[in-house]
Amino acid sequence: MNKHFGFLLLLCICGLPACWNAEEKAAIAKLKPTKDPIQEEIYAFRLKMRALYNNRRFAELEPVAAEIRRTKPLFGNGSWKIAQFYESFACRREEPESMWQLHDRIHQDWIAQFPTSITARVAYADFLREYAWHARGTGFADKVTKEGWQLFGERLDLARNTLVESRRLTDKDPFWWVVALGVALGQQWPKNEYDQLLEQAKAFEPKFWGYDTARASSLLPRWYGEPGDWEAYAKQAAARPDGLGAEIYARIVMSLHGYYDNVFR
Q1: In whole angstroms, what is the distance from residue 55 CA to residue 7 CA?
Q2: pLDDT at 17 over 60
Q3: Quick check: helix, strand or coil at residue 80?
Q4: CB burial string 199-211: b at 16+ within 10 A, e below
Q5: What is the pTM of this model?
Q6: How far apart (Å, rounded) are the C-alpha atoms in residues 262 and 160?
Q7: Of 110, 210, 244, 261, which residue is the least packed, with the fewest Cβ within 10 Å?
Q8: 230, 256 Cβ separation under 8 angstroms
Q9: Which tens digit of pLDDT belongs to each residue from 138-191?
Q10: 40: which residues sit within 8 A by CB, 6+ positions away?
């Protein structure tokens, strides 16, 4: 990874530093936008996976996921290919209920055709987790309807059951813990149980940085943390001798900046 990765990611959040003079800013303004070849590669991969999923070509998705789990590839920007694989199937929250129901049927068809597939079950559990939040909405708790809370709980229970069932399968998948950590947060597991799940995840795949961004999110005051906790965790993660250094710090900030008007204040 480029040693300036952290600075570049933070620059995306902040915009141009105030210390840059008018001449420098004018020169930057003249730059022409161009396509990021790495991002284009990711888009192409995701579009291909989504097309296979939409057309229920599960027999073609299965070996792709198996090979990714075996080789653990990263894209040039450091994103894990296995994460991009599962995110290819996402249903946007603004989609109508009919589209969410269609996705539900596709996932159930996948499991029916490949009942021993870890891929199919992780994908379905991830969908159910998002489907739960679709029912709840993103507003404050006192604005959620009774039906919204009921569906939220039911769908998270289904997601958890799907994950539990998949533990009996031979194959294991690093994205399983990403989904499990999301379910645990939604179900408000006791902090010690969440911490145990995180330790299992990091023991399984220590370099998977999605676990660190999930841990940082869980340390927001709305969940398990107090003011300053996630920032302290970001510093701790960046200081690991065998870790990603400034890159993981930047990734954590990027993942949480949407909770603040200005994450640096």
Answers
A1: 41
A2: no
A3: strand
A4: eebeeebeebbbb
A5: 0.85
A6: 35
A7: 261
A8: yes
A9: 777 778 888 889 999 999 999 999 999 999 999 999 999 999 999 999 999 999
A10: none
